[in-house]
């Protein structure tokens, strides 16, 4: 059974959350930035099969070179023209993380290349910087930020989920392990008012 660990949980640096999803296909979701993620991966698993990016802001990708050098893996992301992306993930493509299949949802607004990964059974989502716990949502004051598109993307994620969604793993802050859809609903209401 796949296990999801946040390797950045104890780090006090400018980084995103970094999720190691182990199982049949061990994958790192966002390598993070400014900490020794390679040692943390090595202490938990014998290897890595791929790196998957939610988006290409520096706090999510700063450690990418160290990870690809240590584990000789491809980096998967939405924008095939980005220097770090080896393999393109198109919208609505299914990819395997750990022991489960996930659907890639293109969710721009925070950044044009932003993806969320929703487990095909609907129980888990990697939300990147689209939504956070307790109704938070991604900034739109950065390059490529677009608040109306962010609201549309949150609506798209909400429409793709139902009450079976238990786990939400966001790019920053705590993960949610029950009633995760409620947090997306809160984020949508907040973003619509913002």
How do the helices and strands line up, and which of them pair or pack?
Blueprint: E1 3-6, E2 19-22, E3 27-29, H1 37-42, E4 50-52, H2 58-61, H3 64-71, E5 75-77, E6 87-88, E7 94-97, E8 100-106, E9 115-119, E10 124-128, H4 147-160, E11 167-170, H5 180-193
Parallel strand pairs: 3-4, 4-5, 5-6, 10-11
Antiparallel strand pairs: 1-2, 2-3, 7-8, 8-9, 9-10
Helix pairs in contact: 4-5
CATH class: Alpha Beta
Q: What is the total number of structural domains?
A: 1
Secondary-structure element string? EEEHEHHEEEEEEHEH
The radius of gyration is 15 Å
Order of strands, main sheet, comes to 1-2-3-4-5-6
Distance between the termini: 40 Å
Mean pLDDT: 97
> Number of DSSP strands?
11
Counting helices, strands and paired strands, the structural category is alpha/beta
Strand content: 15-25%
What's the CATH architecture?
Answer: 4-Layer Sandwich
Estimated helix fraction = 10-25%
What composes the largest sheet?
6 strands, mixed
Unreliable stretches (pLDDT < 50, length at least 5) are: none
């Amino acid at each position: 059974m796949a296990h999801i660990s946040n390797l950045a949980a104890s780090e006090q640096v400018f980084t995103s959350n970094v999720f190691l999803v182990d199982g049949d296909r061990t994958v790192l979701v966002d390598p993070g930035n400014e900490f020794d993620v390679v040692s943390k991966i090595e202490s938990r698993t014998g290897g890595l099969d791929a790196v998957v990016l939610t988006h290409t802001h520096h706090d999510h990708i700063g450690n990418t070179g160290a990870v690809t050098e240590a584990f000789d893996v491809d980096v998967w992301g939405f924008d095939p023209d980005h220097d770090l992306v080896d393999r393109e993930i198109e919208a609505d493509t299914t990819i395997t993380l750990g022991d489960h299949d996930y659907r890639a949802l293109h969710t721009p607004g925070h950044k044009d290349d932003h993806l969320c990964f929703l487990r095909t059974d609907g129980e888990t989502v990697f939300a990147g910087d689209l939504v956070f716990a307790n109704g938070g949502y991604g900034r739109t004051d950065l390059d490529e930020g677009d608040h109306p598109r962010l609201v549309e993307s949150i609506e798209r994620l909400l429409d793709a989920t139902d009450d079976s969604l238990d786990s939400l793993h966001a790019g920053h802050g705590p993960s949610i392990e029950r009633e995760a859809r409620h947090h997306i609903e809160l984020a949508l209401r907040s973003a619509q008012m913002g």
